[in-house]
Amino acid sequence: AHETSGLRGSATDIAGAVGADEALTTSLNCLEWSCDLTLQRVDRSGAVLASRSTSLLPDAMADAWNIVVHQWPFHYPDSGQAGELGEVIDAADFREYLSLALAADAGSGQASELATFQRAEALLARADRFLPLYRLYVDSALDLHDDTSDPAYLRRAEGVLDAARTWAGDSPLLYQALFDLSMERGDHTAAEETLSELQRLTPDRVLIHRLSARLLSEQARYAEADKHYQRALALRPGRNLRYNAAWNFYEWGRPEQASALLEASLAAYPRDPRPHDMLGLIKLHAGDLDDAAGHFRKSLSIEETVTTRSNLGLALLLQGDYASAREE
């Protein structure tokens, strides 16, 4: 073992500096309420010998928030400093926020989504200076609009964001929510304008590439979208990016490339049900009914959803297994 805390450079640079044949590296990619932890073993040439990833929910996210707030001005002295978490949301409401975030991520039907939306609305009345809650509220409203096509949810989301902008100003978090709202409305012009503002506001190139790819994919400009996805994946590979890039291939009519990405994602994140769902659809459309049913069953063994259960029923119906199809 070698002490490398004083060394700088890539894993291969560090391995070479200490005369090691291999190096063990870790990376943590955090999204709104969960993190992807990746552990890799690489040799001195840079080849990855082994890789394993897992998703986790930090046990003490409030503590993590405050640690980041304390460290931030030392790394970015000209960017200002946020206040303590307790200044904008108390511990009980923060736990409620985490519970809502997990419920929204799981998604289990319209009734559950409505309950999540109502709880987020109530929480917003108590913690209206906690910016991540606005993103959660808007995501919840968009999920309900997807299910109901009721434009009232879009209007409520827009009203909440307009109110937040009066005190939060040009927050990248709010602009991401505005981008999502524009995309849900199919207003690509507004989405492009919001994306331009985000390019000005944030140095996060992965975010810009991801949103650009999403917009281009929605416009059926799949080749251009893929370029952005590949750039984002080169900077910060993660399961959500892999899944979205695979979906772009699927919509593009390139199921083989989509399948390759999904299989790679499953190798790194075996407990993610979404690759099984999409692989099931790809196999279903190709007529590989046994494989399709197998992927849907694997997805359901990880997470129960109405859509996947329905897709499994369809695969069984097409196989002629009418009794099992009725049970689904």
List the helices and strands and how they pair.
Elements: H1 11-17, E1 22-30, E2 35-43, E3 48-56, H2 61-75, H3 91-106, H4 110-126, H5 131-148, H6 152-168, H7 172-185, H8 188-201, H9 205-218, H10 222-235, H11 239-252, H12 255-268, H13 274-286, H14 289-302, H15 306-319, H16 322-327
Antiparallel strand pairs: 1-2, 2-3
Walk me through what this model shows.
The chain is mainly α. It has 16 helices and 3 strands. A 3-stranded antiparallel beta sheet has the order 1-2-3. β1 and β2 (35-43) form a beta hairpin. The longest helix is centred in the middle third of the chain and has 18 residues, at 131-148. The protein is globular and about 50 Å long. The N and C termini lie far apart (54 Å). Residues 1-8 and 58-64 have low confidence and may be disordered.
Give the termini distance in whole angstroms: 54 Å
Low-confidence stretches at least 5 residues in length (pLDDT < 50)?
Answer: 1-8, 58-64
> Which percent band covers the strand fraction?
5-15%
Helix run count: 16
What's the rounded overall pLDDT mean?
82
The level of helicity is 55-70%
DSSP E strands, number: 3
* Class derived from helix and strand content: mainly alpha
What can be said about the biggest beta sheet? 3 strands, antiparallel
- The gross shape turns out to be globular
Which value, in Å, is the CA radius of gyration? Answer: 22 Å
